[in-house]
Each structure stands twice: as C-alpha cells, then as structure tokens.
Amino acid sequence: MEYLLLIYHSEAEGAKMSPADLSAMYGEYFKFTEEIKKSGNYIGGNPLKPTTTATTVRVRDAKKIVTDGPFAETKEQLGGYYLVEAKDLDQAISIAARIPGARFGSIEVRPILPRTQAVQA
Amino acid sequence: MDLEKLHREESGRILSTLIGLLGDFDLAEEMLQEAYAAALEKWPVEGAPANPRAWLIGTARHKAIDRLRRAQRFERKAEEILKTAEISVLPESELEKEMVADDRLRLIFTCCHPSLPLEARVALTLRTVCGITTEEISRAFLVPLATMAQRLVRAKGKIREAGIPYRVPLEGELQDRVDGVLLVVYLIFNEGYLASSGDALIRRELCAEAIRLGRVLCGLLPQQAEARALLGLMLLHDSRRDARVSAERELVLLEEQDRSLWHAEQIREGTEFVEAALRRGAVGMYAVQASIAALHANAKTAKDTDWPQIAALYDVLLRTHASPVIEVNRAVAVAMARSVEAGLALLDEIERREQLEEFHLLPAARADLLRRLGRTAEAVEAYRRALTLATNDMERRFLRLRIAQIEMQNAPARKREARPASEGGPYNKVGS
C-alpha cells in the first residue's frame, strides 16, 4: 500500500533553531531519505517553503477566490512530505517514526486511495 | 450440542480463525452468521458433527468462496483462500490448536491497534474477540445501539482502509503494543467493576470477559510479567464481587464487607499471579496496584490491613504514574497508617489544586475523614458535593445513606470511631 507521510512542525519553533542544529537536521533528513530509497520504500518526497509563501485558492460560483496564507491556521504547519510504499500501516508507522521531524513535530500517516478504488468511488 | 453455548464460548475463536483465513472482518462475520444458520437447520436433523468448531469454520469458508466466486472480480482472492483451504477441516489437533491460538492473538493485536480510537478498541475487542453482541456492548457502555454499531463499522473500515495488519507485532514494537492490549483489558474490567451506571448483569459479564482475556494473554505471551500482574489484579478485585454489594443492593465498604463471602480460591490464584509477576520483575502500574490489592485481599480482618505498606506502594505508584487520583488513594492510606489529620491535610492540598473537580471520590474521601474527626457539618457538605458528582446509582445511594446517618445522629457533633473511606477498588481509572 502507498502512504503519504505528512510532516507537521511549528515554524515558530523551527525559526529559533541555530544554523548548526539546522544543518545537522538536514544531514539527518538526507541520511533517512537514502535509507528508505535503499530499502525500496521511497516513492517521493519534498520539503516545503514556509506557510508565509502559501496561497489558498477556491472557486465559488465559477469565480476564483485567492487568499494569502495556508488553508487553516494551526499550531503546527505542514512542512514537507514523503510518499512511501509500505506493507501495511505498521510498517508505514515505523518509517514515519524514523523521520527526523517526528522528534519535534508530528507525522500524519495517510493511506493513498488506490486508482482502481478511486474510479469506483 | 448446545449451539447457543457454542456461540457464546467459541465464536471469538472461530471468528479469529475465519478472519485469518479470509483477511476480511465483515466477510468473516457475515459468513459465520450464515454458518450458524446452516447449523441450526442441519444439526437437529443430521446430528451435531464430531468437531463443531471445524464444521462451522469449514462451512463459513465454503460460503465465503461461493460468495467471492459469484463476484467475478474477486476470483484471484477465492483461489488464495482455496489454497489455504485444508487447514480448517483438520480434526482437532495440536497444530490446529496452535493456529487458533495464533489467530486469536493476532486478532487481539488488530482490535487493540493504537491507530483506532480507544473506545473503538474496547468495543471491537468485546465484539470480535469475546463474541459479545453489539446490543450488549451498547447497553454496557450506555451508548445508543446505533452509535455503537457505527463505532464498530468505522473501526472495521479503518482496519481495512488504512491497512492495519492482522499480525502479532514484531519484536521491536511488541512491548509497546502489549501495553496497549493490557490497557484495553484493564478498561473492560474497570467498566465492569466500577461502571458509572447500567445493567449489573452485563457489568458482571465484562469482568468475566476481561479475566478470560487476561488468561488468554498470559497463556499466549508467557514472557509478559505485566500481563500476569494485570490478571492477578483483576482476580483479586473480582474475588470480592459477592461482598461489595449487600442483599439490599447497597454498596458495602471494604472495611465492612463480610470477608467470608470473598472467594478464597480466587484470592489464592490472584495472589499467585501477582507473586509470579513480581518474581519476573514486573514493576509497572498493574504490578503495584495488584500488590496493593493482594495486601487487602489477604488481610484476615480490616484491622489487620497493612496500611503502612499500602501507603508506601501508593508512593511507588505516584513516582511512576503521577496522577491526582492516585494521590487521593494514597491520602486515604496515609489517614489509616498514620493519622486521619495527616490524610485530610493531603486531600485538602489536592483540592486546592483544583485538578479533580469532577471526581466524586475526592469529596467522598474528604467527607469520610471529616466524619471521623467529628467535623460533621463539613462532612455532610462534602458528602453532598460527592453526591452531585457521582453517576453510579449504588454509590449515590451509599452517599445519601451516609448523609442521613450523620444527620440522624447529629445532635451535638461528637467524635466517632475511625473508619476507612476506601472500598479498595481500582479507583485510578487511566486517563481520569
């Protein structure tokens, strides 16, 4: 099964990190990504620019409404994601637990709706 | 063969095997119902089979294959099931017994998966592992039937859609997951033992089911010392079941219970489990609570209770599982071990922190200590406060009775003989 691992963290807290801590964390992310590539679980993944760069778009009555900022104001913000292939939820959880950001923020584990099911739905 | 009895006692085991074979909770449940229907029709005419369980599993499996074959797109799935087909029709053998045990353990871990909401874990375990009907569970938890049914449907849906595996967790994560399973068993027992209200018969059933689950876990996971501690704890509390409620259905405090009504054999067994757990190094929440329960259960009279040791054990519990509820229990033990004033001072301190404003046992415990100090007006006030918070009918009756007693005897306030406030139950419900 495919799972999307959504990495949430507090941008305010992240901004307080020292350059040394930041570069150590980038190193950890790089190492982790290499590991799940080697194990065959990796499908994709990216860090995101902060929510200050976010734009939210809605279309209502065929009219496009564009607003600044993220969809919802929350304590922790979406900061990146991995798309992984895992045998089951337990494996997805154990991969999520190894994401460096799990120690500071939270990882939401979401199963991907398979294409065949999406067509039926 | 009593089909009803078989259904009660075996449906959890049969269902776990079927879920293992079919890999689908709903399909397994539906097919098992059909197999029972077939049994109702055939057994009275043809006579019961030699191995009713294997017959039911075999019949349900065949019905599942038929069903899947009719739905063409599942053809491959049907082939897979056919491949594993012969297992279930084997006569009762060691191999089969072992497989059934493994299926059961897998099912318990699936139902208690931490990605399910806690209340759904409890309900799903009762429904699937214990075979209790949705209707009974809804009555036990005072939830409308439709709500409970919905809760179960959602949980099964999540197991399927999120890919919650049907297997025993790997070594590295086993310990965490076992703790989660023990918590569910503990909650089932507590619901039966303390139950905020509801049907007494079903509550009795919950205690029995929790103990049965505890036995299964001890049998399947012999290395888990905390599982033994939990089983011991449950057996010891449950051993008082006939003494803690009077013939008039009034709650009887631990101190006032007729100890000859305690089930001596169960106390012996419970104490053995606790000792075995401690020997294996159990030091967790259940082990400490069980040690306290063992001290209560093995005291010949209320006066013989080793309160200093009980107070010391609550200290241990507080260090590892700090909670204001445990502090209340400790304060009561201190009142008995040292002095009522010392206990009351601790309770007053907890009250000042205002963390337990909804917990009726705090004012109830205060009331009892105040009463023993002869401060009757304050005692009545505290009992009234407890009464506004308590939800259990029996506890409410007990509190009203206490108020009436004091008011009747309360000409000028005078000192009365000391009495413990604690009924000795597992008051420290997790999370409260």
Helices and strands, with pairings:
The complex is a heterodimer of chains A (121) and B (432).
Chain A (H helix, E strand, L loop, with lengths): L1 E8 L1 H5 L3 H20 L3 E6 L7 E6 L2 E6 L8 E9 L3 H10 L7 E6 L3 H6 L1
Antiparallel strand pairs in A: 1-5, 1-6, 2-5, 3-4
Chain B lengths: L2 H20 L2 H22 L5 H19 L4 H9 L10 H18 L6 H12 L4 H7 L4 H17 L9 H24 L5 H21 L4 H14 L25 H16 L5 H13 L9 H14 L3 H14 L2 H14 L7 H12 L3 H14 L3 H17 L23
Helix pairs in contact in B: 1-2, 1-3, 1-5, 2-3, 3-4, 5-6, 6-8, 6-9, 7-8, 9-10, 9-11, 10-11, 11-12, 11-13, 12-13, 13-14, 14-15, 15-16, 15-17, 16-17, 17-18, 18-19
Structure description:
The complex is a heterodimer of chains A (121) and B (432). By secondary structure, chain A is α+β, with helices and mostly antiparallel strands. Chain A has a single domain (2-120), classed as 2-Layer Sandwich (Alpha-Beta Plaits), CATH 3.30.70.1060. Helices cover 34% and strands 34% of the residues of chain A. Chain A has helices at residues 11-15, 19-38, 89-98, 115-120; strands spanning 2-9, 42-47, 55-60, 63-68, 77-85, 106-111. A 4-stranded antiparallel sheet of chain A has the order 2-5-1-6. Chain A has a two-stranded antiparallel ribbon with strand order 3-4. The longest helix of chain A is centred in the N-terminal third of the chain and has 20 residues, at 19-38. Chain A is flat. The two termini of chain A are 18 Å apart. The model of chain A has no long low-confidence stretch (mean pLDDT 93). In chain B, 69% of the residues lie in helices and 0% in strands. Chain B is built from 19 helices and no strands. With 432 residues, chain B is mostly helical. Chain B folds into 3 domains: 1-92; 94-223, no CATH class; 306-409, Tetratricopeptide repeat domain (Serine Threonine Protein Phosphatase 5, Tetratricopeptide repeat), CATH 1.25.40.10. At the A-B interface, helix 3 of A face loops of B.
